TrEMBL record:
This is Uncharacterized protein. The lineage of its organism: Bacteria, Bacillati, Chloroflexota, Chloroflexia, Chloroflexales.
Length: 400
């Protein structure tokens, strides 16, 4: 009840009540098991979620090891599958994810170490656990951001969607093997027009056209739980670098000197597509380079070409968002993070939000600064209501 009041549903809370006995645990687990496609979040708190410990005259003052023993006896779940949560004693708060499959309980986090879990949890354990327990649609974006900051965790992170919690496949061998730099949060999108296509930004923009590869191959060699990964005959995942071979400095590396001497280095921070045109893709880099490709759906990934649209008169700052006009793939809005004051002091261009129109005939773009009365504050993202034409900008202080 305390956890539910704190906004953390789908959680098993075992209260420290007088007369607590083994029979109280199993029935509660059984009820919760019927929800959310048999994927259940379990959070044991032998303390309140508000910092104060229960102090009541129970027949025995249970702590987390006692709870683990009850779970082992009744559900067959070993204590090693649960992880400490929070900055307090690991003997007071723990989290686990379990699934009820074929009539028995299984740990869905069995391959995760405590260090892995701590990396995923980040700086705010309360928000992390709440995201995992509040529901599938809410937890997926949070987990994606937590994982993308540390690509190695992709090999271990457990599934949070689908009917089979053991059914996820690892597809990122080629991305890691490339050695390319990547953002803290890697830009990853599914193609809104071409089924099965995904794009991700490192130093190249990478593409898969079949959801990472043959499903049969992925299930056999790359499944997170059952795959024969050590004997795979080829890398897991069939990502290809657009514009050239993989690797820093190769053709298609959008942050390399191949695309100019200015605003170079770092990595791609934004990738966007539109439903209206399967050939167009916009991409941007951390230092303010902006690109458009008009053949992003080319059969041969190496044939994809990019045209650089920015100039010295546009900001040399992190591109925080791109939104493409769904009625005109050559028309987009672009936002920048950072402050104009610092840009001016550095002798670089100012501005926070721009309307950009690409002319395929000349290969050039027209930029219009529409920052207006935004003030000097970083823009974290932008989006467009295509029905009304209203453009929205996110900031650290709210939505404009």
């Amino acid at each position: 009840e305390h956890l539910a009041d704190a906004g953390m549903p789908v959680v098993l809370a075992v209260a420290m009540m007088p007369g607590l006995n083994d029979n109280q645990v199993g029935p509660t687990m059984d009820v919760i098991a019927r929800s959310r496609a048999n994927i259940v979040a379990v959070n044991f708190q032998c303390a309140t979620p508000f910092g104060g410990r229960f102090d009541i005259d129970a027949p025995r003052k249970l702590r987390l090891p006692d709870m683990f023993e009850l779970m082992r006896q009744q559900c067959g779940l070993e204590p090693s599958g649960f992880f400490p949560v929070g900055s307090g004693s690991p003997l007071c708060n723990a989290y686990g994810r379990v699934a009820f499959i074929d009539g028995q309980w299984r740990h869905a986090l069995k391959d995760l170490t405590v260090d892995d879990f701590m990396d995923l949890m980040g700086d705010d354990p309360v928000d992390f656990v709440r995201a995992l327990t509040v529901g599938l649609s809410e937890s997926v974006p949070y987990m994606a951001k937590q994982v993308m900051k540390n690509p190695r965790l992709l090999k271990k992170v457990v599934p949070l969607v689908g009917n089979d919690p053991l059914g996820w496949n690892w597809v990122s061998d080629r991305l890691l093997d490339s050695g390319e730099g990547s953002s803290f949060y890697v830009p990853l999108i599914s193609d809104p027009r071409v089924s099965g296509s995904w794009f991700v930004g490192l130093q190249h923009v990478w593409r898969t056209k079949d959801n990472g590869g043959s499903q049969a191959f992925l299930e056999k060699y790359c499944n997170e739980f059952t795959g024969d990964y050590g004997n795979r005959p080829e890398p897991c995942g069939d990502w290809e670098a657009l514009g050239g071979p993989a690797g820093a400095g190769e053709a298609g590396d959008l942050v390399s000197p191949l695309y100019g001497a200015d605003k170079g280095g770092s990595y791609v921070v934004a990738v966007e597509r539109t439903r209206s045109d399967k050939n167009t893709l916009w991409a941007a880099t951390r230092r303010g380079r902006l690109f458009v490709s008009k053949n992003a759906d080319a059969a041969n990934a190496a044939d994809v070409t990019f045209t650089r649209l920015d100039s010295a008169s546009t900001p040399t700052r992190f591109v925080s968002g791109i939104v493409i006009d769904r009625n005109d793939a050559n028309h987009a809005w672009v936002s920048f993070s950072g402050y104009d004051a610092y840009a001016a002091a550095a002798g670089t261009a100012t501005g926070h939000v721009f309307e950009v129109t690409y002319n395929p005939g000349s290969g050039t773009a027209t930029w219009k600064d529409i920052s207006a009365n935004i003030g000097d504050q970083p823009i974290t993202d932008i989006t467009l209501d295509h029905n009304t034409g209203d453009l929205y900008a996110g900031t650290d202080f709210g939505v404009l």
